[in-house]
Recover the amino acids of this structure.
């Protein structure tokens, strides 16, 4: 441009010199000036066109460098995350059936017991005395009955005497059985085999049917119970895969949902699920907290990092992809359909092909139809 303007100035000076020599008038000078200006404008347009062509052909021009990843097909899983608690299949607090003074506690906390074993004895001395008296009377009544029976078999004696002796004997037997039942209520026995978790009573203390005496637990078979919002009811079925994590002990278990509740709690709009768990080493304790990850979606497909997805003004999702060209890569705005997002990854239902080059770093600095290069 400087050369063009210098040339134009030189021509203008020369023309002015000639004009002076030839005594040309001012009108002629202005006319020549306009011609020169038109020549300058024409040369400027030619120069701009040349610079544009140079820009297109210059391989050393500065292009935006971006990083890319390839769209990969892999297994995508989505999880519903909730909390639950461990419940023992057999965990009870045992209450006495009758009041009385506690005379014996036969077990200690942490002791294993078998089903039917007597754990606590409540004072039954009065019942024992009454039973001893009845037992003495029963022995006499039994002897009398046997003799009456032998005489009756020989047609000796009256029938009424035989029936009276029989009734007395049976009445005493029933009374003794009644006392035995009452005596049983003065014992606390194990309803199942397990471990004594806590003893609430003390020897000499008063047994009260309203207060627990012992807590008995069997942890061989436990289950995890949780409440899930009704929104997920259609996704969770019996047999749905679930991952359990117990943060307190750092234990993971992969299992399946054992039962889905049929009742929606109107207070919090949730339903219960149950997962049965084996516990051979008694690691899981009753009321232990558990983190549940319920697998509600599992499918192979195109999965990309969620951070690469952008939104246009209409709210439609897209990513920038690259198409190879001679001088670099052409940026294309590729619209996609998202299915699900979990753990910073998104399952793409439509819009992306496997192995497509997706712009990662630098995606916010480029636009569609721009030429870029790949960063080394």
């Amino acid at each position: 441009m400087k050369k063009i303007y210098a040339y134009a100035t030189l021509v203008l000076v020369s023309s002015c010199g000639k004009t002076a020599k030839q005594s040309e008038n001012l009108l002629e000078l202005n006319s020549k000036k306009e011609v020169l200006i038109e020549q300058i404008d024409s040369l400027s347009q030619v120069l701009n066109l040349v610079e544009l062509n140079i820009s297109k052909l210059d391989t050393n021009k500065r292009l935006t460098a971006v990083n890319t990843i390839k769209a990969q097909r892999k297994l995508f899983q989505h999880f519903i995350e909730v909390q639950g608690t461990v419940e023992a299949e057999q965990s009870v607090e045992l209450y006495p059936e009758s009041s009385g003074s506690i005379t014996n506690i036969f077990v200690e906390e942490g002791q294993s017991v078998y089903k039917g074993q007597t754990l606590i004895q409540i004072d039954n001395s009065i019942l024992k005395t009454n039973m001893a008296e009845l037992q003495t009377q029963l022995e006499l009544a039994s002897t009398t009955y046997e003799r009456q029976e032998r005489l009756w078999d020989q047609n000796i004696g009256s029938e009424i005497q035989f029936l009276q002796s029989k009734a007395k004997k049976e009445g005493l037997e029933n009374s003794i059985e009644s006392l035995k039942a009452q005596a049983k209520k003065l014992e606390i026995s194990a309803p199942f085999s397990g471990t004594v978790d806590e003893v609430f009573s003390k020897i000499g203390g008063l047994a009260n049917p309203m207060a627990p005496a012992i807590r008995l637990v069997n942890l061989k078979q436990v289950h995890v119970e949780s409440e899930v919002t009704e929104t997920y009811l259609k996704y969770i079925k019996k047999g749905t895969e679930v991952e359990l994590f117990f943060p307190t002990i750092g234990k993971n278990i992969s299992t399946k949902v054992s039962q889905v509740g049929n009742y929606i709690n109107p207070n919090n709009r949730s339903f219960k699920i149950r997962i049965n768990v084996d516990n051979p080493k008694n690691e899981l304790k009753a009321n232990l907290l558990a983190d549940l990850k319920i697998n509600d979606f599992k499918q192979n497909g195109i999965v990309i990092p969620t951070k690469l997805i952008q939104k246009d003004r209409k709210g439609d999702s897209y990513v920038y992809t690259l198409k190879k060209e001679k001088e670099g890569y052409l940026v294309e705005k590729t619209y996609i359909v998202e299915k699900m997002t979990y753990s910073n990854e998104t399952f793409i239902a439509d819009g992306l092909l496997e192995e497509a080059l997706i712009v990662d770093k630098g995606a916010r600095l480029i636009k569609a139809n721009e030429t870029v290069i790949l960063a080394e």
In short: Residues 1-13, 15-22 have pLDDT under 50 and may be disordered. The radius of gyration is 49 Å. The first strand starts at residue 64 and ends at 66.
